[in-house]
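Run log // design_07
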């Protein structure tokens, strides 16, 4: 299976404008993401998709292939599809790499890519919830699975409810998983899901993947041991460095 890696990189951000260009120990966040991504063994090619010429110029300086997309895309998924179209080459799958995880491990990409067998429509990653604090954090998206490890539902709430047990013990009574936000899409499915209108569940939870589930698409979930360390604000840079034992 041929797989194209795409790194969406927007300049505009309400909490951190110009985030892709933020320096982390002498290198931009975007360059760090790109350098980690190209180390993955199962991607045939990697491109950066941006709506901003400042980001594009910077990316070209460190040798990246860049595609300029429209600014008004509502999500990284939509930006990925336009970038794929503009790139002009055919691939079986498109893997959407998060542009705000500067210390992404290449094996995390490969572990998701290994499941691309031509049958899988969409795949993403998950990690076990190991504490009460994480389980009940509404900023962490939890996944309900079927027996094939396909997503039945994503929620910011805790599902299922454990009857007759104290909430502090729920994570010890059931294998809860939370979402690690990297996606790979079969090319034909990516085109289809970007044509869908926002759904009621998506609007309720503010999770675009619920639109896909509501419309009958299957999302395979691959367990990973690699946690995601996103940079959403300038303060997150120091936090990520500490988590990675670098700062």
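design_07 sequence
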């Amino acid at each position: 299976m041929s797989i194209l890696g795409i790194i969406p990189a927007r300049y505009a951000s309400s909490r951190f404008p110009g985030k892709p260009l933020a320096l982390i120990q002498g290198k931009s966040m975007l360059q760090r993401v790109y350098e980690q991504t190209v180390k993955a063994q199962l991607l045939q090619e990697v491109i950066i998709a941006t709506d901003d010429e400042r980001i594009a110029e910077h990316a070209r300086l460190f040798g990246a292939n860049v595609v300029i997309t429209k600014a008004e895309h509502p999500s990284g998924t939509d930006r990925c599809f336009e970038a794929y179209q503009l790139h002009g080459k055919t691939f079986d799958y498109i893997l959407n790499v998060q542009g705000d995880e500067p210390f992404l491990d290449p094996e995390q990409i490969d572990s998701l890519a290994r499941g691309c067998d031509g049958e899988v429509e969409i795949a993403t990653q998950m990690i076990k919830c190991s504490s009460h604090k994480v389980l009940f954090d509404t900023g962490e998206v939890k996944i309900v699975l079927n027996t094939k490890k396909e997503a039945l539902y994503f929620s910011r709430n805790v599902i299922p409810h454990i009857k007759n047990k104290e909430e502090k013990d729920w994570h010890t009574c059931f294998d809860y998983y939370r979402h690690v936000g990297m996606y790979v899409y079969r090319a034909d499915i990516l085109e289809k899901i970007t044509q869908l209108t926002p759904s009621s569940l998506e609007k309720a939870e503010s999770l675009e993947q619920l639109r896909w589930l509501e419309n009958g698409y299957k999302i395979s979930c691959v367990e990973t041991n690699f946690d995601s360390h996103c940079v959403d604000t300038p303060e997150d840079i120091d936090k990520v460095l500490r988590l990675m034992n670098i700062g």
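The radius of gyration is 18 Å.
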